[in-house]
Every structure is written in structure tokens, then in C-alpha cells.
Design brief:
This protein is mainly beta. The protein has one helix at residues 163-168; strands spanning 13-16, 20-23, 33-38, 44-49, 52-57, 61-65, 73-79, 85-91, 102-106, 110-114, 122-128, 134-140, 149-155, 159-162, 181-185, 192-195. It has a 4-stranded antiparallel beta sheet, with no helix packed on it. Strands 7-8-9-10 form a 4-stranded antiparallel beta sheet, with no helix packed on it. A 4-stranded antiparallel beta sheet has the order 11-12-13-14.
Amino acid sequence: CYQTGLPPLLAGFRWTASQGMTAMPSFPGDTTGTASGISSAGDVITGVSGVSSYVWTVSAGLQAIPAPLGATYAQAKGICADGTTVFGHATDGQFPSAYAPAFRWRQGLGARITPNVAPFVSGVASAASAHGDIIVGACATSDLTPSSGVATLWTRPLGQQDLKLYLTSRNVNLSAWALYEATGISGDGKIIVGTG
């Protein structure tokens, strides 16, 4: 949104029935921002202010999400339903943000790189189950357009997996399918949608 009466400022926004439209706060000196995800209760929001990802809560306000170790920047793409886990993609600064691994952040644990599935060089986390214990997305060889890579699934015990190989190992017949990107997952983690 653009705030009238001020220099151009691209900002994330939050609308509620009781308070109407408000701009999301930003870090000092930042002139652009986005809001990219919200918890199911609406009390936790994630996005980007300038080049820094954030998590915002009604009670604590704006909190920076530091880039994970090995990266210089992390772009928050969404947040799980209970508001505990933020996900997106990171970069080391040498490549555009699309040529980078996925990342996840959890309060108390910090931000962590989600390694790409070999031999792919870029990745993104696109959606998470309700408690953030399952995250789906894609890994690609050059960019994150459909058909350039594979759909992925991450869990803490298994790490990052090629979704097709994961399902095939559980006796799911996918011989007629190529799974390029997983874009959504149900709260209980039992239904995944995407492009194939």
C-alpha cells in the first residue's frame, strides 16, 4: 500500500474488521516492506522489511529474523497456522534470491538452511503443515519455474526429500507422474497439492 502524505512507501498491510487498514511496521531506514504470511488466528504475521525478514505479533511487535548461517538474506514466504514456524528461501548474496536454498525459522531455534536435494542448486519452501513439522516446496537446477526441478518435502527426522521418491518409497505408484513443485499442504500433513 502507499501511505498518502508521505514519500512513496511500499509497505505490508494488515486489515481487521475492528481496526480497518493499517500499514505493517518496518525497521528504521527501510522504505519498502511486504506481509507474506499470517497465522490462522491472525495474531502472528511474517514478511520482509527492506532486506530483513520479520515476524510480528500483537503483543511483541516487530522482530527481525536473522539470516541463517551461510546466508546473507532470508525472504519469508509464509508461516504455519499456529504461528511458530516461518519459511521461505535464502541467498548468500552472490545470486538472485531464486537461486538459493529454502530456509525455516522457529522461535527459540533460529533460522536454518534446508539443504537442496542433489543435484539441484536452488530451492524454496512454499507451505507448511499446521505446526510447521512438515514443509513442502521445490528444488530446481536453475530457476524456480514449473518443470525445472522436483517437488520437495521436509521433516525434522528425514530432512529434505524429493517428494516423488518419498511417496514411491511408501508404495505409491507415481510412474506416470513428474512432480515439479509442491505448493500447499493440509494442516494435518496428509494432503499435498502442487504442479506435476
